[in-house]
Design goal:
Length: about 120
Amino acid sequence: MTRRNSTSNDAFNVLQMCHDKVMEGFVAPHSLSNLYYFLRNEYSDSERREYLDSICRVMTVVPTDNKLISEAIFMTFIPDFEDALQYACAEAVDADYIVTRDLRGYPGTVIPAITPSALLQLVA
């Protein structure tokens, strides 16, 4: 949905594969609020809410509680707290990968960070 860069098609294709049940996808709750914010200049409130709803219909929102947040707070091996939240959510669901454009945010993590393009190549 975003027009941020050319890799948006790959991200869309990953979502499509989740929709088609080719793979199971999870999303951290704060990713939804971030996306809502990023889309504010291009889409109306109702369009953004509809888009978030469509994501929630094809991906599972990771349940987040105090324990998960606390784990993320103390993940000092991940420099950025938002990335630590993503990682804690990935651990909570035993994810195989963290699909992101920000590969540098996950240095030396057990769950590897890969781009949408790399994931598509893996499942092709």
